[in-house]
Structure formats: structure tokens, C-alpha cells
Amino acid sequence: MRLTDFLDKGASLGPDAPCLTMGGHSRSYAEVQRLSWVIGQALARSGIQPGDKVAVLSANDPVAFSCVFGIARAGAVWCPVNPRNEAAENRALLDLFDCACLIFQGSFAPLVARIAPELPKVTTLVCLGQVAGVPGAVAFDDWVDGLPGQPWQADPVDDLAMIAGTGGTTGQPKGVLLTGHNIETMTALTLMGYPFEGRPVYLALAPLTHAAGVLCFPVMTLGGEIVIMPAPDLAEFLSLIGQHQVTHAFLPPTLIYLLLDQPGLAAADLGSLQCLWYGAAPMSAARLEQAIRVLGPVMGQLFGQTEAPMMISSMAPKDHFRADGTLATDRFASAGRPGPLVTVAIMDEQGRLLPAGQRGEIVVRGPLVMAGYYKDPAGSADAGRHGWHHTGDIGYLDSGNYLYIVDRAKDMIITGGFNVYSAEVEQALMAHPGVLDCAVVGLPDDKWGEKVTAVVQAHPGQDVPADDLRAFVRQRLGGVKAPKHVEVWPDLPRSRVGKVLKNEVRSRLLGPAPGDGR
């Protein structure tokens, strides 16, 4: 299945229905479809061949997202580029992916001007707006000028749909090869696993280069409307839900925590919401319970990674409740259950599958799993050893087949000979009413080998003494897992998608190395 099939399916259900909306202006399915035909022809006219790599560098924007479908029309491969990346990181990704064309929003012209001379493989530069200061770039309107808005599509060379960069928080980014079959599987799992009543309206606040973007595809198959926010604004987010009668949205946990503290939340019209997806990082069980009580029975979890997008496991809104209607709080720390098209198991270091309740690495099989890493056969083989995709996450499956993620393999702390999983300590800390967010890491210690160390971000105006936090965790988890050291910071370092950067937390805690000049 090609990415264009999602758009074309929506158009078949109503070509005049709104497809992409921003700032009060809507483009219909027919208009987006025509634009995708024109973009595909423009790429071909520029010499882009089926199988070539085309990058899009833009904030959330309807024309930029329409380019995704134009790239697919041309049989080319979409390479989303995070607009929050630094210039050097974007240059490295564009070079790694062998991009032949870069389509960029005008506000990024200074960045493109800096990196373009170092990208000899990029032969076509297209600016969404007026070109300013980028030699060789062409304005989008000039680029598509004279091309007919008629059905057009090139034949692809294979099923490769996109190359997505990994987060890069634990090392050099890799190019994840995602096929049309991968995206089709993710879409099917989404439609099977969550409530969709009527024609959905999806509100995209998070970057369309990441989870918010691929969640558009299942919405399109139902002819739904996608309301795009150009920049994060939680007050505007609440307003748009009522204004457009939004049925679905996605937020990472940190933004949900901030949403719960929004002064206008109590007065907001949220009656249209069917599902508010949360994912991309673990969510506090205590804050999840608060979200359900405040926002309603609409919370829907998804767990995935770039290599197996979005739907390794899921927990629909109804799964947050028991049969008698009470909150199933015992499940709130889980990542839900694997879907019908995904097989999930727990594996030890020798490649043996473990029974329910035992902890090991979470491994995955099925059509959701990537085709491999771009130009990295060794990395692909390592990720797929023993015939399973290795997620790098440590967890277990319970007797009800609910998946619990206890840590990243790299983040496990060994203190006094005991394994301590940082995610478990973080969940305990997040239950404290004064804690907005936190990170737990292991630091070298002469006595313990590693000492459990926590950094906490408090709610604005809250006082959270370190001694109180240590006692709070000790009461819940015992002395071994309780942090030996706690610090309170005004904010935590985060990646461009909002994940806490534990490497940066650890680096700050350790301080400058002797002789490094800082």
C-alpha cells in the first residue's frame, strides 16, 4: 500500500470534505489530491526518479504535509526532517539518507543556506514561500507552475515508503526503512484498536514529522479532517477541540501534565473527544488517573518505536476500566496489550523466550517491524538477531498479556548487586503530588557500584524537599530502590520530541571531567 492510497481512499468517501485545516482555512480532499498530482509531476520534471530520497523540512503546515503525498506519487521516498534539529544534525541526516531533493519552509532558509553547500547529492531545493538567500533554490509556486492538476502517478521501484531518523539520544541517528506494508499494518492496528465513530476530526499539535504525522493516515482512510496547529499552544489546543468538534488527538505525557494544569481546562468543551492518545514516553500512573477523571474516559495509550511504529501494544480507552466500570488502576503502569497483527515476547540474553512474569528484553515480530536500517547491514542484523526485532526495552508480560516496560536496557541501574529499573522509581516519584516530571539515573559510587539518583521538576510554586521525596519512594519501593541522591531542577533537558535526555541529565550530574577546560 502506498501513502497516496490513504489520501485517495479519503477522497473516494467525499472529495469536497475538508482534509487539511489550519488557521480557519480548509483544503478539501480533492484539492489536496490535485496538489499531490502536481507535486509528483514537479519532482519528475526536476529529475527525481522513483526510489530517490526527498526530504521535507517544515513546521506543521498543510502544503508541507501535502508534499508527502506528492513524493509518493513520484515513487520517491519520504524523509521527514525534524525542524527542531540543529543545522549540523539535519546536514548529517540529509547526507546519510542520500537525499536528492529538499523541500523546505521559507523560515528555514537561513539553515538551508548554511548546510546546502555541504550536500552535493541534493540537486533540487524547493522553498515553500519566497526564496531568500538560498542559491539554486526555486520558489514552490514557480516549481509547480504550468503543471496540470490531473491524475498522475509513477511506478515505484519497491515498497519503501519513508526513511525515518531515530531519536539519536543514545548515539548516532540511524535511518529506519519503513515500507508501505509497515504503515498499512500500523493503520490497521489503529483502526482496530481505538474508537472511531463517524467521520473523525484529528487535531495535530505535535510535529507531523513524528507520531502526529503517521496518525493522519488512519484518519484519512475514514475521510476525516486533520486540523493542524503550526506551533504548540495548549490554550489554543483546548479552544480548537470545541471549535472543530475534535474527536482524536495525540499528546506526549509531558504535554498532558501541562494540559491538566491549564487554567481554562474546566471551561473547555471536550464533549466531542473519543480518544486522546498518549505515548512516546512512559506516563505516570497517578497523572493518568487524574487525566481520566478530568478529561473523561478518552485516554488511549500506544507504545511503539521508530522501528515498529506506534502499535507494538495499545490500550484503548475502554481498557482503562474494569467490567464493572471502575478504573483498572492496576493496568495504568502497563503499555497495554499487543495487537492482533503483532507478536510480542520477552527474551533473555541467550535468546530464550521467557514465561509470563519474568523480565527480559521486549522483542517483536510481524509486518509492523521495519525492513532494516539504511546502509547498515550490521545494525540491521543485530536488531533482528534470533529472528526477532529487539526493542532495547526491558519488560514483562503478565498473565493477562499486558505488557509492562520497566526500563531501557541501557538505563538499568545495578546498585549493591541488585537490579533497579529507573522507570519503576520514576513511576513512584510521579505519584508525589508536587512532582511534574522526573528522571532517574545511576551514577558511579564506591560503596554501591551505582547509586540511584533522581532529578525532579516540580509543579510551579511547589516545594518538594529532597528528603521528603526519598522517604516517599522508600515507603513504596523499599530502601534499595529509593534514590540515594535527589536534586530539584527548574526543567529537564529534552529531545526535540519531548523525551527526557537521560544522557544529558547524567552528564550534568557528573559535572565537567578533570582537565576538560570547563
Secondary structure layout:
Layout: H1 3-12, E1 18-22, E2 25-28, H2 29-45, E3 53-57, H3 62-73, E4 77-81, H4 87-96, E5 99-105, H5 109-115, E6 124-128, E7 138-139, H6 140-144, E8 160-165, E9 175-179, H7 180-193, E10 201-204, H8 211-214, H9 216-221, E11 225-228, H10 234-244, E12 248-251, H11 253-260, E13 275-278, H12 285-295, E14 299-305, E15 308-315, E16 337-338, E17 343-347, E18 360-365, E19 372-373, H13 377-383, E20 389-397, E21 403-408, E22 413-415, E23 418-420, H14 422-430, E24 435-445, E25 449-458, H15 466-477, E26 485-489, H16 502-510
Parallel strand pairs: 1-11, 3-4, 3-5, 5-6, 6-7, 10-11, 10-12, 12-13, 13-14, 25-26
Antiparallel strand pairs: 1-2, 8-9, 9-19, 14-15, 15-16, 17-18, 18-20, 20-21, 22-23, 24-25
Structure description:
This protein has 518 residues and is α/β, with parallel strands linked by helices. It folds into three domains: 27-154, Rossmann fold; 233-408, 3-Layer(aba) Sandwich (Rossmann fold), CATH 3.40.50; 412-510, ANL, C-terminal domain (GMP Synthetase, Chain A, domain 3), CATH 3.30.300. Helices cover 29% and strands 26% of the residues. It is built from 16 helices and 26 strands. The strands form six sheets. The protein has a nine-stranded mixed beta sheet, with helices on both faces. A five-stranded parallel beta sheet has the order 4-3-5-6-7, with helices on both faces. Strands 17-18-20-21 form a four-stranded antiparallel beta sheet. β5, α5 (109-115) and β6 (124-128) form a beta-alpha-beta unit. α4 packs across α5. The longest helix has 17 residues, at 29-45. The termini are far apart. Residues 513-518 have low confidence and may be disordered.
